[in-house]
C-alpha cells in the first residue's frame, strides 16, 4: 500500500474541504471496497478523509418520502421497518449482496460508489483505461464472461457490480450531495453513474470532493411496495456478485399494469433501466406474454462480447421471471 495522509472529518463541511483541497483524495466509509483497492494499489489516494464519525445515519420520514443517511449501514437500511414496509425492493436488493459481515460494515454511500469487479481493473500487470487512462482495455478481447452487453465502449467493457443501486433506480431515488462550494444538490440516482464512453476512469457524475449526504426515496415509489421483486442470478447461491440481476416493480389496478419498473444489474457500466420495457408494460394485463415481451425489449440493444453471449438470454429470462414474481404469479 502506498503511504497516504489520514484526516478524520469532524463535520461535513470540514470533510469536504479536506477532500477538495488535494486532488485524488478519497472518503473512507465502511472501507470494504476502498481498503481492498488501496492494498492492491489499484487506488493510490494521497489523502484519505475518514467520514465515519459524521452524523449521517438518519432514517427520517420527510414530506417527500424517506431520507436515508449515507453512513447508515446496509444492514441497518435493509432491516429498518419503514424501508421494509414501503420499499421492500430495496431491502431485498441489499440482502442479496455480499455477506452479513460485509453488510454490517458497508454504508449506503460507499455501496453506491463501489467500483467494478473487472479482473483486469484489479490486475496491475494488464492495461485498463479505467485504472490508467489511455493504457487500453484488456477485457475487450480478453476473458470477458462477466462484462457488459449494453452501453459499453471500445475503451471499457466493465460493469457496475452492485445490487442496492438497481433497486434505487427502480424506486426513482435521488442522492443528496454536499459540494465543495458549500451547497447541496440533489442528483436523480439514474444520473449518478455514467456509461464509459471515452472516459471510463469516471464512474459517476460526482465532481471531485463532493460528499454524498444521503439517499431520498420518494413517497410515490411506495406504490410498488406490494408488487416488487429483486432477482439475482450468480455462480454461487450466496456471497457472489451477479451475472445478471433484475429489480422489477409493478403498480397494479386489478390485473392491469398501471406503472412498471425494470432495471438490470451487471450488464452495463451503470444499472440499466429499460424505459422501453417499462413503457410496453403499461396498460397490459399481468402474465407471461407481457413479461416475456418486456424481457425481449430490455435486451434488444445488447451487443455481447466473445464470452458473455449467455447474458442476453439470461437477461431476458431474468426480466420475465422477476416480473412474474413481482406480480405473484411465480
Ligand atoms: C467479498 C465481497 C463481496 C461483495 N459482494 C457484493 C455483492 O454481491 N453485491 C454488492 O452490491 N456489493 C458487494 N460487495 C461490495 C460491497 O457492498 C461494497 O464494498 C460496500 O458496499 C462499500 O461500502 P463501504 O461503506 O465499505 O465503502 P468504502 O469502501 O468506504 O468506499 C467505497 C467508495 O465510495 C466512496 N465513498 C464512500 N462513502 C462516500 C460518501 N458518503 N460520499 C462520497 N464518496 C463516498 C469512497 O471514497 C470509495 O471511493 C462485496 C464486497 C466484497 C469485499
TrEMBL record:
<dbReference type="InterPro" id="IPR036683">
    <property type="entry name" value="CO_DH_flav_C_dom_sf"/>
</dbReference>
<dbReference type="InterPro" id="IPR002346">
    <property type="entry name" value="Mopterin_DH_FAD-bd"/>
</dbReference>
<dbReference type="Pfam" id="PF03450">
    <property type="entry name" value="CO_deh_flav_C"/>
</dbReference>
<keyword id="KW-0274">FAD</keyword>
<dbReference type="InterPro" id="IPR016169">
    <property type="entry name" value="FAD-bd_PCMH_sub2"/>
</dbReference>
<protein>
    <submittedName>
        <fullName>FAD-binding molybdopterin dehydrogenase</fullName>
    </submittedName>
</protein>
<feature type="domain" description="FAD-binding PCMH-type">
    <location>
        <begin position="1"/>
        <end position="222"/>
    </location>
</feature>
<dbReference type="GO" id="GO:0071949">
    <property type="term" value="F:FAD binding"/>
</dbReference>
<dbReference type="InterPro" id="IPR051312">
    <property type="entry name" value="Diverse_Substr_Oxidored"/>
</dbReference>
<dbReference type="InterPro" id="IPR016167">
    <property type="entry name" value="FAD-bd_PCMH_sub1"/>
</dbReference>
<dbReference type="Pfam" id="PF00941">
    <property type="entry name" value="FAD_binding_5"/>
</dbReference>
<dbReference type="InterPro" id="IPR036318">
    <property type="entry name" value="FAD-bd_PCMH-like_sf"/>
</dbReference>
<dbReference type="GO" id="GO:0016491">
    <property type="term" value="F:oxidoreductase activity"/>
</dbReference>
<dbReference type="InterPro" id="IPR016166">
    <property type="entry name" value="FAD-bd_PCMH"/>
</dbReference>
<dbReference type="InterPro" id="IPR005107">
    <property type="entry name" value="CO_DH_flav_C"/>
</dbReference>
<keyword id="KW-0285">Flavoprotein</keyword>
Amino acid at each position: 500500500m502506498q503511504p497516504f495522509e489520514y484526516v478524520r472529518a469532524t463535520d461535513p463541511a470540514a470533510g469536504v474541504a479536506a477532500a477538495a483541497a488535494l486532488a485524488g483524495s478519497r472518503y473512507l466509509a465502511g472501507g470494504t471496497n476502498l481498503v481492498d483497492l488501496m492494498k492492491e494499489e489499484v487506488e493510490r489516494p494521497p489523502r484519505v478523509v475518514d467520514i465515519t464519525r459524521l452524523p449521517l445515519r438518519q432514517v427520517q420520514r420527510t414530506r417527500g418520502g424517506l431520507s436515508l443517511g449515507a453512513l447508515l449501514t446496509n444492514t441497518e437500511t435493509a432491516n429498518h421497518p419503514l424501508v421494509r414496509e414501503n420499499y421492500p425492493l430495496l431491502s431485498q436488493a441489499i440482502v442479496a449482496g455480499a455477506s452479513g459481515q460485509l453488510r454490517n460494515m458497508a454504508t449506503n454511500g460507499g455501496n453506491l460508489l463501489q467500483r467494478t469487479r473487472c479482473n483486469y481493473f484489479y490486475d496491475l500487470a494488464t492495461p485498463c483505461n479505467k485504472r490508467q487512462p489511455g493504457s487500453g482495455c484488456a477485457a475487450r478481447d480478453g476473458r470477458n464472461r462477466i462484462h457488459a452487453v449494453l452501453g459499453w465502449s471500445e475503451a471499457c467493457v466493465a460493469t457496475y457490480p452492485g445490487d442496492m443501486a438497481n433497486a434505487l433506480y427502480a424506486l426513482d431515488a435521488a442522492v443528496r450531495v454536499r459540494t465543495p462550494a458549500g451547497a447541496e444538490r440533489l442528483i436523480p440516482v439514474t444520473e449518478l453513474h455514467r456509461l464509459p464512453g471515452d472516459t471510463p476512469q469516471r464512474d459517476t457524475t460526482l465532481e471531485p470532493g463532493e460528499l454524498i449526504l444521503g439517499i431520498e426515496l420518494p413517497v410515490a415509489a411506495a406504490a410498488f411496495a406490494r408488487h416488487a421483486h429483486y432477482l439475482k442470478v450468480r455462480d454461487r447461491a450466496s456471497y457472489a456478485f451477479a451475472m445478471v440481476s433484475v429489480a422489477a416493480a409493478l403498480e397494479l389496478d386489478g390485473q392491469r399494469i398501471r406503472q412498471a419498473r425494470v432495471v438490470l444489474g451487471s450488464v452495463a457500466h451503470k444499472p440499466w433501466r429499460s424505459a422501453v420495457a417499462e413503457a410496453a408494460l403499461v396498460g397490459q394485463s399481468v402474465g407471461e406474454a407481457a413479461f416475456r415481451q418486456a424481457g425481449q425489449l430490455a435486451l434488444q440493444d445488447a451487443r455481447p462480447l466473445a464470452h458473455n453471449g449467455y447474458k442476453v438470454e439470461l437477461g431476458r429470462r431474468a426480466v420475465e421471471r422477476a416480473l412474474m414474481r413481482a406480480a405473484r404469479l411465480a
